[in-house]
Amino acid sequence: MTQTKTPLRVAVTGAAGQISYSLLFRIASGAMFGPEQPVILQLLEIPNEKAMKALEGVAMELDDCAFPLLRGLVLSDDPRVAFKDANWSLLVGAKPRGPGMERADLLKDNGKIFTVQGQIIDEVAAEDARVAVVGNPANTNCMIAASKARRLTPDRFTAMVRLDQNRAQAQLAKKAGVALTEVQSIFIYGNHSPTMFPAFAQATIGGKAAREVIGDDAWLQGEFCETVGKRGAAIIAARGLSSAASAANALVDHVHDLMTPGAIHSVAVKGATHYGFDANVWAGVPVRTTTPGSYEIIEGYAMDDFAKSKIAATNKELTDERAMVAELLGT
Ligand code: NAD
Ligand code: LMR
Predict the structure, then answer these.
(1) Which ipTM was obtained for this model?
(2) Which has the least CB within 10 A, 44, 47, 117, 206?
């Protein structure tokens, strides 16, 4: 098939890391932007010989896949080159958590990366630039990057909670003993951390309320929320490394659905005050994609006292994280 569309420029940071090793091949194959959309990958790594050498190896493998949609590769250790005219900037590059580490340990170190990248994206990326943040702590890093932008409005910056949504969907399907596709409308509220709230009261299984089908509120409020919230740590404990293929897959879903009008999915965005979140943090909520790259928060879901207390706890963590990086925000 001949592709006539103008290629999208997709910048990916941390391009020689483990998430990118799954992610780049999915983007180049068309999984993220569809089978008719060519892409140019603009890959950023740190100015370090080992990292850049590894990136060259990844680029060789991308070449060797002979992906028809891959129209160009840019490899750089300079953010101004990697983000130049980028339509999407996927901010994956950051230090991952190791065994026993808390996310707060990452806050300051990783936060600095996002001040620089937010500013440069704002200066050099395309007119329609969109940014998706994966590097942890993702919500707060997204807030930091957005705070440096003068041209791009905050709605252009989103953080990923889709891995948590996918995890929650899989856990509900397992518990109910049904196919994954039977589970619908399970959305993530708040931080990408153990405080996140997978709002089971809104979910359906085979078209019926998930709560009715599962018939065990204690499990939903306890083990279910805990398993989803601590899945990242469980994977680190088992693999010795943080999740990578599933994180890459979730980012494919995140961007794909943001480019698909009508899609309803969990995204961390600014301004979810309707659900009780602070106006200045990026919190996971259900959104509906309106036009490619744009979305509106779905505000119609009622919250019971349990849900409200979970949302208050995850909001508190987000505002605490914001206070911890106040210096980087210049507030
Ligand atoms: P990794 O260590 O394998 O790769 C990270 C890469 O980023 C490295 O190659 C490193 O050189 C590069 N890097 C570091 N600073 C950079 C910078 N300033 N510019 C460009 N590149 C830079 O880590 P990984 O497993 O790929 O994970 C990446 C991040 O994603 C971590 O912060 C991890 O915690 C996070 N993560 C988030 C989710 C989520 O759901 N939001 C899920 C899994 C992992
Ligand atoms: C995950 O959810 O798998 C990652 O964010 C890893 C982590 O640090 O929890």
Answers:
(1) 0.98
(2) 47
Give φ, ψ of 136 to 5 degrees. -85, 155
Q: Where are the alpha helices (DSSP H) in 65-102?
A: 79-82
* Rounded distance between C-alpha atoms, residue 288 and residue 47, angstroms: 39
Active-site residue, 274 included: no
Domains and CATH numbers, the chain: 8-159 (3.40.50.720), 162-324 (3.90.110.10)
Evaluate: CB of 75 within 6 angstroms of ligand 1: no
Q: In the predicted model, what is the mean pLDDT of the chain? A: 96
Please give the Cα distance from 166 to 249 (Å, whole number). 10
Q: Which residue has the tokens 């994966």?
A: 134
**Cβ-based burial of 192 (10 A; exposed 0-12, middle 13-18, buried ≥19):** buried
Burial of 251 (0-12, 13-18, 19+ CB in 10 A): buried
CA of residue 96 to ligand 2 center, whole Å? 8
- Dist CA 192 CA 164 (whole Å): 7
Q: Is 235 in the pocket of ligand 2 (CB under 6 A)?
A: yes
- The finding on whether 163 has its CB within 6 A of some atom of ligand 2 is yes
Looking at ligand 2, which atom is closest to the CA of residue 243?
3
Q: From the CA of 241, how far away is ligand 2's center (Å)?
A: 9
0.80 exceeded by the pTM? yes
Q: Are 81 and 45 in contact (CB under 8 A)?
A: no
The CA 138 to ligand 1 mean position distance, Å, reads 10
pLDDT, residue 166, reads 98
